[in-house]
Design brief:
The structure holds three protein chains of three kinds. Chain A is mainly alpha-helical. Chain A folds into two domains: 2-75; 98-139. Chain A is built from four helices and one strand. Chain B has a single domain, classed as Cytochrome C Oxidase, Chain A, CATH 1.20.210.10. A two-stranded parallel sheet of chain B has the order 2-5. A two-stranded antiparallel sheet of chain B has the order 3-4. By secondary structure, chain C is of the alpha+beta class. Chain C folds into two domains: 9-91 and 103-135, no CATH class; 142-267, Cupredoxins -  blue copper proteins (Immunoglobulin-like). Chain C is built from four helices and ten strands, in the order αααββββββββββα. Chain C has helices at residues 20-39, 57-90, 106-134, 247-263; strands at residues 143-149, 152-157, 161-165, 172-176, 180-187, 192-196, 201-205, 211-216, 221-227, 239-245. In chain C, the strands form two sheets. Chain C has a five-stranded mixed sheet with strand order 3-2-1-5-8. Chain C has a five-stranded mixed sheet with strand order 4-10-9-6-7. In chain C, strand 2 and strand 3 form a beta hairpin. In chain C, helix 1 (20-39) runs parallel beside helix 3 (106-134). The longest helix of chain C has 34 residues, at 57-90. Chain C is elongated and about 90 Å long. The chains are: A mainly alpha, B mainly alpha, C alpha+beta. Chains in contact: A-B, A-C, B-C.
Chain lengths: 144, 588, 295
């Protein structure tokens, strides 16, 4: 997880710097807020991955400390063999009607905003149905 | 039905016959729905990717036809082919379709969806149902956008950038504008969900040994694109919501008309048209890099394969891509130089600076070809065409990054020529390069090379004929978005030449359609690896089986398939120096 | 089975290639070329590369900057183009032999990172120098307020003199040569663009804040102008002219116009029916918006 966290933290630091320079140079609100938001977008997941990396590797100070390679996932290890990835990879929901239903619900809802709220009476129930269906499907591991 | 997957087999282990718990990798046929229900319910990234590509190509053709009408109108100074309103609708929709509905979705919804899991050895994207939702939002968003032509008042006619206050309810009262906003709301969420999927997939689903610095550059570019999507699209969505509120709920976020005046002067209770521009371009500039980076990635896949060499400067490419993404988020106001209200040196410097990582990429591409054995297949030709187009487009972009030069050329055909060069160079040239390169993998059959070359040369010639005169006429002072122009300024001859070029391009697209038909009728089987490709997707069958891989080779570099096929020309693996690996591959 | 799959071949490590020497030699040439080109910014013998020479001092400055950028673009772009063409011709497939699998060459990569940075910094310095001249606001008594509207232009001179024109007749802004003309630019409704091609200059007219700029016309003449920011249905037809006359002629003209206004106030042209100042901008402000939101 090291590279991922460095990548995102770099974004956070970069936009923090750029945003600071921009604010003190221009005193312009809109751009500064957007740059600050982007910095936050980098820091939030970046710090999450950083703490995860620390926990798995027992690092003492940021990224330095213990032996490299301890606790690497197979996909982060240079020497990993395919067999190391043995076991369940993940669950991949296959063949589900709910994305389509949700899509149609969103479609009718936004059209309702344009053409008349009666369309939203069609769209919103579709969205709610889809949300319910997707959750149930996940819990049961298959079709509702 | 949810698949709980066992991982693919190691390539050198004995393969047991079916029925011994080898999971779903055996290539057995999918159970479950068939026919149209199968398409409606599929969460397979390959099906979704294919749907995206076909839909976006349809949008491309539609937008291309609109462009032909635009060019026809401009062949004569006071043409009566189209009314002024129709013309304004056409260029608005041409731009909107091309940028929102073709270039982006083809790249990150289509090709990336199909190819990224294959390239990292994953069975699917991280969130398959979210992926499917992305497609349905995109399809419905596209339908919504096209609905604009059928509503009272016609489609949106305020340009693909919808500057306030032209896009306000007083200046653009029709429903067409609202339909446009809603279409972008749908496709915006579609893109955001795809961005989430791309980032999560590359972070979590890489096969063993596929470390970050062994991922193909296309996948790296898609990762960076995914993050850019997450940075940029929410800003657009927020800006659009506020625009909708201005149009319908009486707010004055962007407008000053009719808002409360104190002593005749604007107060802070009034809105600001400048705010729309800031918000839009904070999205808009990363958006053009969201459009460009995937296509850079395609070129970085195609050039090495047809030079028979690895990518030159792999790490440089990765860092250059990150630098481009980071810088592109800081340059938005270079689209606003002529407002007189932005911090010119800040944006000018960052815009000029983007040339540096882009230049690094260019030199790396040249370095890849250097001392290679270049094979000029159609895919390679299109990537080379991209190099020429983007080189000149990039140089004119540097010119535009300088405010005084921008003052003279902003909103003229000089800018139109510039962005068409870069966008056409990436989305069209590099996009078709990817199409010709990966078509055999997706369909298991080859596209006809001869027709492909006709396609390329016609498009290449048409491209230069169309856009070079536009640079000239822009410098002469012809503004953009005009349905007519004065007849006594000598602009007509350039416009005529440009229109001829546009029709040559249209002819080239006919070649592509003919190619699709011909190669379907007389299929030439492709096999797993017709191009001696380097990356992981060329290891599996064409098309790949359900969940992509029954076998995986050992992954020790960024070219696992090449290493497997050319053991005496191994790729130097990346990453810090390693101790000898834990186990050797068993001897057969 | 080939066990070399499990360990990298040592001889591929950091392969140097014969390309490094000639390419490293060409790099300094590019830098020299750009610097030489930039010295030619005086522009006396360079072609115009398609742009107007600029009928104002600011426009002339922009023109010279354009020439410099064009030469830099030619040099850098031409160099890269030659590299590509060379590669395409020289390295065509000649046999099935697998070429040397060079993956990186650190020195070359450093050079083509650092040199473009230097070039960019040089371009930026010249940009700032030109930009300061183009955007300078010297104090002056010659002030004109421009209001853009859908679809025409209003030019307000001191003493209540107005020149208004719309789609059917393009208005002419009369200005003196050799004097710093200060324009305060407003819009009455939507965004418009004040663009005079031969001045190499354009600026947005925005409702909600006033922007100003200055130009100093070099010689007499009539220069066409046009709206350059999409403003609705008749955007293509929003023309105007700038007519530069000698300062004494200008003083005369202004006096005559002001006398007319005094004699017959009803003769002052009005905005076309349906057009009114809805922008919230006060009429004829003497300050421009200092911040992005027109404070």
């Amino acid at each position: 997880m090291k590279i991922e966290s460095v990548f995102l933290l770099f974004l956070g630091v970069f936009f923090g710097l750029v945003g600071t320079v921009y604010w003190f140079w221009s005193y312009e609100d809109g751009g500064t807020m957007m740059l600050a938001g982007t910095a936050a977008l980098g820091f939030l997941p970046g710090l999450y991955y950083f703490f995860w990396h620390k926990r798995f590797h027992g690092k003492k100070f940021f990224f330095w400390g213990t032996a490299h390679g301890a606790g690497d996932r197979p996909s982060d290890s240079d020497d990993a063999t395919i067999a190391e990835g043995a076991g369940v990879i993940d669950s991949f929901p296959n063949s589900s009607i709910w994305p389509f239903v949700m899509g149609m619900g969103a479609f009718f809802t936004v059209l309702g905003l344009v053409f008349g709220m009666w369309l939203a009476f069609l769209g919103v129930p579709l969205i709610i149905t889809a949300l319910t269906g997707v959750t149930a499907e996940s819990r049961r591991g298959g079709h509702v | 039905m949810t698949d709980v997957l066992d991982p693919p087999l190691v390539v050198d282990q004995p393969h047991e016959p079916d029925g011994h718990g080898n999971g779903h990798g055996g290539g057995h046929e999918a159970h479950g729905p068939t026919g149209i229900l199968k398409w409606l319910t599929s969460t397979d990234h390959k099906v979704i990717g294919m749907s995206y590509m076909i839909t976006s190509l349809v949008m491309f053709y539609l937008a291309g036809i609109m462009a032909l009408f635009i060019r026809l109108q401009l062949t004569s100074p006071h043409s009566t082919l189209l009314s002024f309103n129709q013309y304004n609708e056409l260029f608005t929709m041409h731009g909107s379709l091309m940028l929102y509905l073709f270039a982006g979705p083809f790249a990150f919804g289509g090709l990336a969806n199909y190819i990224v899991p294959l390239q990292i050895g994953a069975p699917d994207m991280a969130f398959p149902r979210l992926n499917a939702l992305s497609y349905w939002l995109y399809l419905t968003g596209s339908i919504t956008m096209l609905l604009g032509f059928f509503v009272a008042g016609g489609a949106a006619s305020f340009g693909w950038v919808a500057y306030a206050p032209l896009s306000s309810a007083t200046s653009s009262p029709g429903i067409g504008g609202d339909v446009w906003i809603m279409a972008l709301a749908l496709t915006g969420f579609s893109a955001i969900f795809t961005g989430v999927n791309l980032v999560a997939t590359t972070f979590y689903l890489r096969a063993p040994g596929m470390t970050m610095f062994r991922m193909p550059i296309f996948t790296w570019n898609m990762l960076v694109t995914g993050i850019l999507i997450l940075i940029a699209f929410p800003v657009l969505t927020s800006a659009l919501i506020m625009l909708f509120c201005d149009r319908h709920f009486g707010t004055h976020i962007y407008t000053v008309t009719g808002c409360h005046l104190v002593n005749g002067a604007v107060t802070h209770t009034c809105g600001s048209p400048l705010l729309w521009q800031n918000l839009f371009w904070f999205f808009g500039h990363p958006e053009v890099y969201i459009l460009a980076l995937p296509f850079f990635g395609i070129v970085t896949e195609v050039l090495p394969v047809f030079s028979r060499k690895p990518v030159f400067g792999y790490k440089g490419m990765v860092f250059a891509t990150m630098a481009i993404a980071a810088l592109s988020t800081g340059v938005w106001a270079h689209h606003m130089f002529t407002t007189g209200a932005v911090l010119l040196p800040f944006f000018s410097f960052l815009s000029l600076l983007i040339a540096v990582p882009t230049g690094i990429k260019f030199f790396n591409w040249i370095g890849t070809m250097w001392h290679g054995q270049l094979q000029f297949t159609t895919a390679m030709l299109f990537s080379i065409g991209f190099l020429f187009a983007f080189l000149m487009g990039g140089v004119t972009g540097i010119m535009l990054a300088s405010p005084p030069i921008d003052f003279a050329t902003h909103d003229t055909y000089f800018v139109v020529a510039h962005f068409h060069q870069v966008l056409f160079g990436t989305a069209v040239f590099a996009g078709f390069s990817g199409l010709y390169y990966w078509y055999p993998k997706m369909y298991g059959r080859m596209l006809n090379e001869k027709l492909g070359k006709w396609h390329f040369w016609l498009m290449f010639i048409g491209f230069w004929v169309t856009f070079m005169p536009q640079y000239v006429v822009g410098l002469l002072g012809m503004p953009r978005r005009v349905a007519s122009y004065p007849s006594n300024l000598g602009w007509q001859s350039y416009n005529i030449v440009s229109t001829v070029g546009a029709f040559i391009i249209a002819l080239s697209f006919l070649m592509l359609l003919i190619n699709f038909v011909v190669s379907w009728r007389n299929p030439v089987p492709a096999g797993n690896n017709p191009w001696d490709g380097h990356t992981l997707e060329w290891f599996t069958t064409s098309p790949p089986p359900h969940h992509n891989y029954t076998h995986l080779p050992p992954i020790r570099s960024e070219r696992p398939t090449w290493d497997y096929n050319h053991p005496d020309n191994l790729t130097v693996h990346h990453g810090p120096a390693k101790s000898p690996p834990k186990e050797k591959v068993p001897v057969a | 089975m080939d066990s070399s799959l499990t360990s990298p071949s040592a001889d591929i490590e950091g392969a140097t290639s014969a390309i490094s020497a000639p390419r490293a030699r060409r790099r300094p040439l590019a830098v020299v070329g750009v610097i030489a080109a930039s010295f030619l910014l005086t522009g006396c013998t360079l072609p115009s590369f398609g742009a107007y020479h600029g009928a104002t001092t600011q426009g002339r400055t922009t023109f010279h900057l354009w020439q410099g950028f064009f030469v830099a673009g030619l040099v850098v772009g031409g160099f890269v183009l030659l590299l590509i063409l060379w590669a395409l011709i020289r390295y065509r497939k000649k046999s099935e032999e697998i070429p040397k699998q060079t993956q990186y060459h650190t020195l070359t990569e450093v050079i083509y990172t650092v040199v473009p940075i230097i070039i960019v910094v040089i371009l930026f310095v010249f940009t700032v120098l030109a930009e300061n001249k183009v955007d300078a606001l010297p104090p002056t008594k010659t002030v004109i307020h421009v209001n853009a509207f859908q679809w025409g232009w209003e030019f307000d001179y001191p003493g209540g003199v107005k020149v208004i024109g719309d789609l059917t007749d393009a208005p002419t802004m009369v200005v003196p040569t050799g004097d710093n003309v200060r324009i305060y630019l407003n819009s009455l409704d939507v965004l418009h663009g004040f663009y005079v091609p031969e001045f190499n200059f354009s600026r947005y007219a925005s409702p909600g804040y006033t922007t100003d700029f200055s130009f100093n016309v070099l010689h007499t003449g009539t220069f066409r102008g046009q709206c350059t920011q999409l403003c609705g249905l008749y955007h293509s037809l929003m023309f105007f002219n700038v007519k530069a006359i000698t300062p004494s002629q200008y003083a005369n003209w202004l006096q005559v116009q002001q006398a007319k206004v005094k004699a017959d106030p009803a003769s002052v042209p009005q905005l076309p029916t349906g057009v009114k100042n809805t922008s919230g901008n006060p009429d004829n402000p003497t300050t421009s918006g200092s911040g992005a939101y027109g404070d």
